[in-house]
Amino acid sequence: MAAGGVFARRGVRLAAGLVAGALALTGCGGGDESGGEGEKITLTVATFSDFGYEPLVKDYMAAHPNVTVKLRVTEFDQHHKQLATRLGAGAGAADIEAVEEGYIPQFRQSKDKFVNLADFGAKDLAKQWLPWKWEQSLADSGNFVMGLGTDMGGLALCYRSDLFSAAGLPVERDKVSALWTSWDEYFAVGDRFVGSGSKAKWFDGVGNIYQAMMNQTPYGYFDTSDAYVGDSNPAVKSAFDKVAAVANKPGMSAKLDPFSQQWNVGFKQGTFATLPCPSWMLGLIKDGSGPENAGKWDIAKIPGNGGNWGGSFLTVPKQGKNAKEAYELAKFLTSPDSEAKIFQNVGSLPSQPETLKNPAVLGFKNEYFSNAPVGEIYAKSGETLQPNYRGTRDADVRPVFGRALARVEQGKQSPADAWTQALSEAGKALGK
Amino acid sequence: MRGRLDRHLTPYLFVAPFFVLFAVFGAYPLLATLWMSLHDWHLINGDGGFTGLANYSELFADPDFWNALVNTLSLFVISTVPQLFIALGLAALLNTKLRGRTFWRAGVLVPNVVSVVAVALVFAQVFGRDFGIVNWLLGLVGLEPIDWPANVWSSHLAIAAIVTWRWTGYNALIYLAAMQAVPNDLYESARLDGASTWKAFWTVTVPMIRPTILFTTVVSTIGGLQLFAEPLLFESKGASTGTGGSDRQYQTITMYLYEKGFTLFDAGSAATIAWVLFLIVAVFALINFAVVRRAVASR
Fold first, then answer.
1. Complex confidence, ipTM
2. Fold of B51-297
3. Which chain B residues in 226-245 lie under 8 Å from chain A, judged by CB atoms?
């Protein structure tokens, strides 16, 4: 059977890591002690999906002939886990590493492994970003700048206009937006949709809905002083109860895990009519649904308040030899000009007020989504959204509540039992 | 003089690479892991202070660890036992005068060389809830579709199917090699005594390849206790935390290690799990070893 199983494979990976590390060491050993002008250096940028950097990097290399930039793209979870092990090992990390919002609190605990970008004058750039985006990158009561903000994930609600029309619901995006201001109203429209006898379900799965709701709260499992409030914050309980009530209700949830293969199949087969969609998800929806469903999706306002889900930061690990040059490149990649170009190329929503007012951004329409004015929709959502504070140990607790709702969705537990188990698991994870 | 030195030194030089590699990739990680397990060790920040056996007592008091242990043993039993029986039958078939023998013999190894990621993707489709082949077949005979990852038994069956599919051919080839070493005259005399093919298989083939059967049992045990890739990839992509489902229904010990170390960055606890797993595997290996010795001696 699995002869040598994990350990053999991990050995191989470790060996590869060591070799890569050795190569990196010898590669950099050529005389970058002085770090002076005109010296040939190589900078690696590690991201976890298409950040749209390729054309920008070409421009940068043309303007800086001594700099070669390499892009390294890995899958989301693997990217962050690799970064963690490489920081722990002290070798192998790229010169610039992207860190997603959800992972920022975890890595903030290891800020000593990163360069304080304030040392290079990053604080002068603060005004470039929306204030909450800038604050997310800070540690040490504002003295430590972990990274420069890339995109953000303003929330909207994507819906299938063909399924809406078949169910007798309005299809025009302003009218759809007018159907709901709260999540309760959204679920009530869901009842109407289910009542119409549609074969499709109302939304994709509890995972996405709950995540969106939690991202609309000012703080979730931890208050802004970082104390655990998962068991006492009424916002958590209210979101949990609302989602749990519809999780196993017939016709409501397609019961799909976001980002899973089954989820992609669901897009293609049209098994659900709506889902909350931060701007970066549009690409996934398009890829999953395929060309045969072009023009069937449209975008409306999210129920509840504005909210942010996702978005990343470019950090500079300390182990890199060319921190200053890496910072300059990160600064370039997150400049208002670059963010506007990236939005047009790959659709990542800029996190900067100036860029959000850029006519090229505001006027941008997405053909696949029935020509929805995505620039306008998301720019508006970005300016009005209320940021969500994530505690240092958020990653220990957040999945626990997600799994509890999955158990309700799978019909394995009642909402009350799932909540009780979630609280005890969260307490255990925090060592209480 | 030089010749003698060569003769004395060369053998050591030839075996040295193994010991160097073992020291780097075997002994060092083992000892470093032991050291880490005695500390409060953060994956990135490193040593957070000596804690003695606190990690171990925490682990033994942790219901999630026992859950993972039970899952591992359950998956081990339902994937290894049928797998070895099927492999034995397959090897017997491959050992007959088949048309295109080489093709079939090479063919059974194909599942083993296909990337496990591809295998997991395919099986996720096979066991899909809404559009999976298995549920479609169940529907043909009038049964309700099953949400395979959602329940303990169904997730274990599905994962066991992946493991069995991947490793049966590999074991079959090992059995086949052993079967080809069985002297033909034994079969001839069995036939003269009037034994059927079925009877000859159980009274000649199986006893003759018993050491090989025990070998595959040992290797399968060690592999089965470390079962990792198949159940991890059975998790949906968005949730690859190593938790093994909404209620840890298919979390194995190595997945628990992965969750602790690489999702929660608690390397100290992960190292503790690694060492406990090492000891469990060592105990199983010793039991196997004793059985092997007795079996060989009894021949």
1. 0.85
2. MetI-like fold (1.10.3720)
3. 226-229, 236-241, 243
